[in-house]
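Re: the 763-residue chain
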Amino acid sequence: MAAHDYTVKQEGGKRYLIIDCRGCPYGSSIADFPACMREVLELVAKTSPDLVVLSDVYEKIYNENQTRMLRQIAELADLFRRERVWAPSRLGTDDPNLLSSRHDLVVMIAQDLLLSDPVNAYLTLVQAVKREKERAKATKDTEFLKTLLFMLSKFESLDLIKRLKAILLKLKKLPPGRQIYHTLFEVQIKPAFVSSTVFFHTPANIELVDQYKVKDATVNIYKHPEKIQYLYYLNPPEYNLTPEKYFLLTKTREVVASYKPEGLEFMSPVDVRKYFERIYESTITDLAEKNNIQLTGAEKEELARIVTRYTVGYGMMELLLSDRRLTDVYMDAPLGEKPVYVVHSDYGTCQTNVVFTEEEAKGIISRFRAQSGRPFDEAHPVLDLDLHELQTRVAVIGPPLSPDGTAFALRLHKQTPWTLPQFIDVKMMNSFSAGLLSFLVDAQASTLVCGSRGAGKTSLLMSLMLEILPSLRIIVQEDTLEIPVPFMKKLGYNIQRLKTQSAIAVSRTSAEVPPEEALRTALRLGDSVLIIGEVRSKEAKVLYEAMRVGAVGNVVMGTIHGENAYSVWDRIVNDLGVPNTSFKATDVVVTAAPIRFKGSLKRHRRLIEVTEIGKHWYEDPEKEGGFVKLLDYDTEKDTQFFMEENLKKSELFPKIAKMRGLKVKDLIDDINARAFTKQFLVNMKNKYNIPELLEAKYTVPANDKWMLVLESQREELGRVDYESAKKEWQKWVLDTQVRELVERRRKIEQAKKKIAARKARKK
């Protein structure tokens, strides 16, 4: 009987043999301790697992290939027992002394050494075969040799022996003691309280294309020569600690497991995290002193952050959601069977080295239910919510909707909104297109941004919102909180957000307000710019009724799924039931799409169309000339071009010109001047390597300054001189924004050099 308790757990279609090694009289390591290997093999024979886990203050995980080797050894020991290779009839002699020595040799190889030191068993058998071959030549007695050769053939069919031979070809000799087992059983170590699995073995011939830090973890991006997808390998700090630190982590978690302070419900998630980090750091300090473990202050802080992540945080999921270069994270059912997949802003869809488990999912879903107040069970198999502290939208599905078990889809929101100069910089649009969009927003054109999923609709909507003058009040209505309203408030915007009922019926709660009711409320909140996160269903009628009767005096913008202006009209009129006469309240449809150039696997977001909606048509706007394309996209040249000839058909431009007492040509001059300001910021960003210049923190004040310069000219000259305005504005940007960012970068570089110099001196 085995000395330790064990359990067999089913996870992701795999059987895990988990052996409780706490209080083990010998060490918990197959590689180091013969007794441990024997016990593990005995349990493997009983349970036939896919993976073996030795659990102590930390867990040692033997992967599927290593466990397969263990199973083969256990099966070979059982085969030798069934074949009774040590039976007198298999030993080829009647001599009592020789019979006894042969019996002892075979038993030692087939049972004792095989279960505790199979490499030694094999090498002992090889020597025995050599000796017996020499003896058989002289005596012509081959019965015992047949038995040994039978055993040798079975040994050499083991994966372990095949790997051993490959290693010995390189090393030329066997390492002393049991060192060879550290190569054969390269165990993965992780804290016992971490349920997710992270594998670090990388395929041969892969290319490292990027590396960066996420919190305390390292991210490596690899390109596989035979795979379409990139590989996203996360290396968390909790997988790279000393045994002493693993001990402290486990003990700290045990100490604080039942600690539930009062008053936390009145604290923000960020404050709660800081509070627990301080508590855990104090506990780690005490435990380290009691156990005579030396730690630096930085090491204590790191351990406290790890414990916090797996107690009040979201564990491995939190590390992934902290990588703001990701846009989506997918954990498909059955959990534990396949690795997590992510969508990277630079590398597209990537396979990770993280396997999220059902056990970890249960704990996180329990927290999601408590936070959202929504049920999640067979009657309510969908749970959607917003994780504000991680700026992520979460959708969880379970049985019976997902028959294979629980699955997650997580959409990460950009911490700061995209800006038009940033879109120019990444080639989503050219500068004239940005100037045109900025002009339309300033002209208070009612705008719908359309596109497929992943086309960048919401990101484009955010950039258009930043073209609204901060002096205007904004009402934002969303069912999922994607627009960074708190950030815009910090920029000085007067903005109010309305959270409406989820679009997913099974996740709704009675406390949530339906979107059409919220919209009616928004229309009573005073004269405001109205932003609809996404036009989905019933609220479309309310929105268009308000637009048609003039209840909304300012710009209205929103997103909707569609591939062009016609599909938007078709959906709003034929699917959502909005009359044609009401749909005409839309001034412009802006279309974005993911483009695969020349059939490439990579997708590039592009602005592909800006279409004006005419007012003089009745049944079908396309047949009756109701669509006026202002901007089109040339895929071959990868650029947008202005369809100036179509201005002859435009109703919007003459209307804007009339309202402003200008000519259409003056409006084009305004667009070109706006385009110049956007491009100038991009040029300065590239010239001085200051990407911060294109962030909203700088582009919004730059927009404001441009409008103030123009207003000053109108007051002083009674007209606008764009050339002098450009010079004045350029000087302001260079003297205030560019100079500040360049100086900041210089100081950062100096600080880095000082740190590097200090490290070099210490070495």
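The first strand starts at residue 6 and ends at 11.
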